[in-house]
Fold this sequence. Notes:
The protein has helices at 2-15, 21-28, 57-64, 79-88, 117-123, 201-215, 238-241, 250-275, 314-317, 344-351, 365-368, 453-467; strands at residues 32-38, 67-69, 72-73, 127-132, 151-155, 171-173, 188-190, 193-195, 221-226, 234-236, 282-288, 321-324, 333-335, 339-340, 380-384, 387-391, 395-402, 431-437, 483-488, 491-496. By secondary structure, the chain is of the alpha/beta class. Mean pLDDT is 95; it is low at 5-24.
Amino acid sequence: MKNSLALCLASLIIMLPVVTNAQVDSASRQPNIVFIFADDLGIGDTGVYGSTIIDTPNIDALAASGVRFTQGYVSHPVCSPSRAGLLTGRYQQRHGWEFNPAGRDRDNGLALDQVTIADKLGERGYATGMIGKWHLGQQEQHHPMSRGFDEYFGVLAGASQFFETLPEGGAYAGTRGAPVNRSAVNAVYRGRERVQVDEYLTDVFTEEAVSFIDRHANEPFFLYLSHTTPHTPLQATKPYLDRYGHVQDMATRVYAAMVSSLDDSVGEVVEKLKEIGQYENTLIALLSDNGCAGYIDNACSNLNFAGFKRYHQEGGIRIPFLLSWPNELPSNKLYDKPVISLDLMSTFTAAAGDRVETEDSVNLLPYIKGERSDDPHEFLFWRAGPTQAIRDQRWKLIKYKLTDFTEADLNDTGRLDPPTGGWATGTPLGLITLLYDLQNDPQESNNVAAQYPDIVQRLEAEHARWNDELPPPDETILPAIRSTLTDVDGKTVQLIF
Ligand code: CA
């Protein structure tokens, strides 16, 4: 007996030094929050969501360590408004950022009276750092460091070159893929100072992310790692391209290589978190800002969902959506109810111990943990000028503007040239009404509006109720100038974004 007690004590003494300071801190301090945002990554472009081309072992491991959402959405199918909604936890139409600024973010940005996730986490004592694509205004007052971030390194614009000259063994694809020098508009900034970057941009963002984590290892931090990949220009370096030598189509190969660079970034961030003893105490979110683009030569995948970036069909707005937090959340969990990027505001601040409530943002943590079994959202809503969409747990209603423009009216970027003052929000030729049973027809292949007039009417009324809360679409900060055409259900419609 005495011997076994002594043995027990001895083994305790041997075990004690294994509990490091970092692990003690991990149990007592607020969790870190790392939000990794991909740009134009399709829901079918990672292994865990079903890609048959692209290998994403690190993203797959992240999913396995936490929760994978099968019905995760963004609030807009293009970059800038999607980010405006996410960072404020409010539908971006509430604060007038309804459309892509399309270059006008040099002079305009996210409304200054809006509060961002970084503002809120900063108030809660977090070190806040942003790395990567901002796309919410380039003037001093709109800069990330004026919107809640202590530190910034990245591209203020909506996209940039991944390299300025083609490196040995590198490749590019697509009509605007050839590397050129970055202009002042798509330059890289450290803080508010322009810097020269010669290495592959995604790798540089990853190095900066790892450095941020290292420098803030001893305090709770919020890192917003907003990659510009795999958005155009399609450009990749040899180490990533070498993984896809078997892929014949060049656009597909370069795109896959770009997603691999994102995947390596996820791996390095996780590795660094483990190294500082904070992996279990870190809530990591990974999302894409919209579905993958239909204009990159079939190089990407939104699975078999209809539409792409720019569209309000599922391919434009249903995105990869992962949450991992080993200390608090179950692993290997699938969550099937509809959620939206707007929920990150409440979810992140709840994790930080002091939840922010907005009209639109739902704390997802109790749903994931099984403490709540109701629906996080009764409805999700979308609006982009005349385009309207709403879904409940089963049905989705979309209304697109009917048009007499034809394919011949599209310019060489595949868009319509906007009239002076932007696109009017009126619908002189009316709207097409599309109703889909997402439960049985997630591909949105069968418009059943005519069969279910009562459901159409109910969803129209709900959308009108939400729409009445918003400023009208012609009172946005910037009018819409981006637009294209598509055919749906035998009609040509005008997508405005
Ligand atoms: Ca995007």
